[in-house]
Amino acid sequence: MLDALKFFLFVILLLVTIMLNQHVTSKRSAELDLELLWQIQDTKGVYVIQNQTVPSGVYTALEQSMVIGSLLEEYNDVNTSWVGETDWTYRTNLSCLAEDYKYVLLTLHGVDTFASVSLGEQLLGTTENMFVRYRYDVKQLCDGDTHELRLQFRSPVVEARERAKDRALPIVPTCPPDVYHGQCHVNLIRKMQASFAWDWGLSAPSMGIWKPIRLEYYSSALIRDLTVVISELEVNGSERWSIAVRVYLETGLASAQVHGLLTFKIIGVPFLNEADQTLAVTNKTNEHGELLVEHGLTVARNAVERWWPNGYGKQTLYSLYVRWEDEAVNGVKLPNPDTMISEKVIRIGFRTVQLSQERTTDGLMFYFKVNDVPIFAKGSNWIPSSVLPERSYDSNYVKFLLYAARDAHMNMLRVWGGGLYESDHFYRLADELGLLIWHDLMFACSMYPSEPDFLRTVQEEVRQNVRRIQHHPSVAVWATNNENEVALRQNWYKTNANYTAYYTQYVELYVRTVLPTVEANDPWRTVLLSSPSNGDQSLKERFIATNPQDPRYGDVHYYNYFLDGWNAAQYRGGRFVSEYGFQSFPAYTSWPEARSYRQAELSQLINHRQHSPLGNAPILTMIELNLPLPRDPSADGYWPELIYLSQLSQAMIVKTETEVYRARRVEHGTMGALYWQLNDVWIAPSWSSIEYGGTFKLLHVWLRDIFAPEHLVAFVNERRQLEVVAVRDTLQPDVQLWDVELRIHRYGSFRLVERIRQERIRVPANTVELVSTWDVYGHLAKQGLHPADHLVLLYAYLHPADGLPSQPAPQPIAENFALLDKLKNIRQEQRVQPTVSISVVSAVCSEQSNLTSVSLEVSVSAPALFVYLQLTPENSTLKQCQFSRNGFLQFQPVRTVQLTCVDPGCRNKIQARDITVRTVNELLVR
């Protein structure tokens, strides 16, 4: 009775803890973070950095001690390359007592990458994979004396170079393009592949303790991981959820007998069978001290709410609590019974996810069904939030980026295969925000070796990370690599001469090692062999499809830099477009020291950071095709103007492409649009919609409309018809009636040329509906109107319910625009230069949240094209500033825009003079 009361009180305490802290993950017998004070130094003792805490990295420590400037400033990516080519040592003093604990383990959750680990004079072991957790038995050394804990890091650059020597078959590509300013042979080591440079990122061959390092004390078994498989079933007419739980127990590093009791609780949810609550375990761990225990739970379907992606319903989560208690706890009186108890809490969601690939008349479909509802996947690709791994887990910045994705109506992010397995915080937020995760394993754009030692560490990497991540309901699918199937098939790296050998390595790594390891640890999800791939069709073609980019199967990556990206007629799409996009430059005020640079100096810096082998040519070509292109790089306003036009062009290209994909949901079976890429790791030309640090490019502001759940899409199709499509991702009601209005405007006047209205358009739930295809050019010609002088503004309204009294003027549920000719072709008489003025209506700053909110009125004397608002450089202390609208068409005299910024201490008072304005008009009238 006493034990039952104690357990009841514990559960009450646990409930309170969960309510107060929704991010509870585990409670262990005893666990000590070795943040301590570490010393870091190079092998020659030239640089000695004291009093460092971990997680840590060498670059970060050198910056903080001012040995080097910020890695992200000016040319420091090259100037500091010596750091990654040097060996470094981390050391601290450690005193511990094993006392009566049976196990004392030193657990390193993330070491980047090659290190020898010693305690005192004893070498504990070596590390070689930054994605793997390493454990060492230190019980005999926990004797109360002080010992030096030492990690001696070897340069990953040198290690990769050594591994490349004397290989009969080179692992290609051996080096990145010269324009990357990067390092070679990163594909030979298990490290973040982008850390040796990428086409969007700098070279930063990091080293350090990038995740926590801990002492773990316990005397029975430790719960390391919990995984779940949740499925719906019906038994004798009773609808229920089945939860298959896997509990991974550890007993140090060696086999041991375990006798005890596992207790299971889903907080606030009763089990259908009370006997499911406990499971007696009598077994033996394997030679590595590991034991898998499987257990089944069932709950009534109506006892829980479903988890839904963003935009489709609530993201309801439940806490699954599992407790291990050794049988000795109740058998004898122990001085420290807690050392024989281990507990873990994870949050789970009740949902089903199916990747449907049913056959069609011309191929296979490829789309996700969540809770049996087909989902059009809207979103982006995620790269690490920092090029330095220890900074990539910055919880506040990760939260900012994921909220920005959610607020732009995204429901899926693809964790790209050249980065990291993300932090627990990242996946928890994805669960909370309803962001489905397409998860690559960490292999990208390369061939890889297949020697036994390499496969062994890869297998451990996949096993550990899949188990850690698996329980999150946001994870929708795994893919074993990024672009390696298409690279091999299309001879990206000159592999055709040895195709059979490279094919054999591919199959050995992905088909025989990674794939079965993922499936063994996560039977809940589909595993794709690559992205892009033909899905099931690739399997039928011996794992390498004849055309991995076939739009009739699987997913595709689509980039075309010299066809006119503003022209909707060039986009065909595929079943699922998991990468597409276009580059732009970050805002002028975002460039390091931009205010003090002369034009030539800024050009040199931008060109240095432009890592695309094509350089700036695609950006300039696309601007020249559609807009007035600034011609004189020496002119004072050259870069501010070019940056503005690049962001406008990027936004127009991604808008056009995305809207075609959404409109082709029925016609082409397109069910996914994930643009490349959400975020950046430095200020540089790239495909991102959010600059490093949090500034939104025009594209990200536009995404709120581009991805809106109810949207009106309009574009000129391949038949030169204006195609108008109503898009609904919403589920309720089953049918809406829309009134759609098309307004033809001249560029030079507020006055409307013509209004065309279609009423009672029937728009079903969760699909698209063609509103009309209209010969707009023929219509204008009949009236003697020139297309270059006009554009179409479109609005959709909910049709008023019949029989109700008249209502105030309805607000549009969707609005859009369609250009009928290139902006550079607007004829002279329609080229007007409006006077644009900004006034501050109100400004409020919360000292509690450090968030300032400013209401602005934008007034124009004539129609203004793509009004671009930006804070002046003098407001540099403001962070993550966002305009509610930007880059907008203003065909009314006054428009209200909200500006929000993070303003620590509420020190800034934003005034009208703090905001600059640009329009396309000013370039047209020049």
Automatic annotation (TrEMBL):
Residues 1-26 form the signal peptide. Its EC number is 3.2.1.25. SUPFAM superfamilies: (Trans)glycosidases, beta-Galactosidase/glucuronidase domain, Galactose-binding domain-like. Gene3D superfamilies: Galactose-binding domain-like, Glycosidases, Immunoglobulins. Keywords: Glycosidase, Hydrolase, Signal. It catalyses: Hydrolysis of terminal, non-reducing beta-D-mannose residues in beta-D-mannosides. Residues 38-211 form the Beta-mannosidase-like galactose-binding domain. It holds the Pfam family Glyco_hydro_2_N2. This is beta-mannosidase. It comes from Anopheles gambiae (African malaria mosquito).
